[in-house]
Specification:
4 helices, about 100 residues
Length: about 100
């Protein structure tokens, strides 16, 4: 039992040290078609335009519609980019389960 705990601690230390250098960019590199890339550029430009708006002069309802629009644009961008994202914590839990089950 003690041998398993030491092995587990060594494995965790190895993965913990390399996790800092394994940070990936927010947008993964995915090959997109011309239509998809043009659409993503338009959506990103709209997000930048929304960020530049002076929100202090807007009413509550206008702010709410902007928030909904930003959420919808984020969903569309995620659909275009695709991919599966795993956090460092999820990877550690998966590794722990694999080690325990084996």
């Amino acid at each position: 039992m003690k041998k398993n705990i030491i092995t587990l601690m060594v494995i965790l230390m190895l993965f913990w040290g390399s996790a800092a250098s394994a940070v990936s960019p927010k947008v993964p590199i995915v090959s997109l078609t011309d239509k998809e890339s043009a659409m993503s550029v338009i959506l990103i430009e709209r997000l930048e335009a929304i960020k530049e708006i002076d929100k202090s002069s807007l009413s509550h309802a206008e702010k709410k519609t902007l928030r909904k629009e930003v959420k919808a644009i984020d969903r569309q961008l995620k659909e275009l980019n695709g991919g599966v994202y795993l956090s460092v914590g999820a990877i550690i839990i998966i590794l722990l389960l694999v080690i325990i089950l084996l």
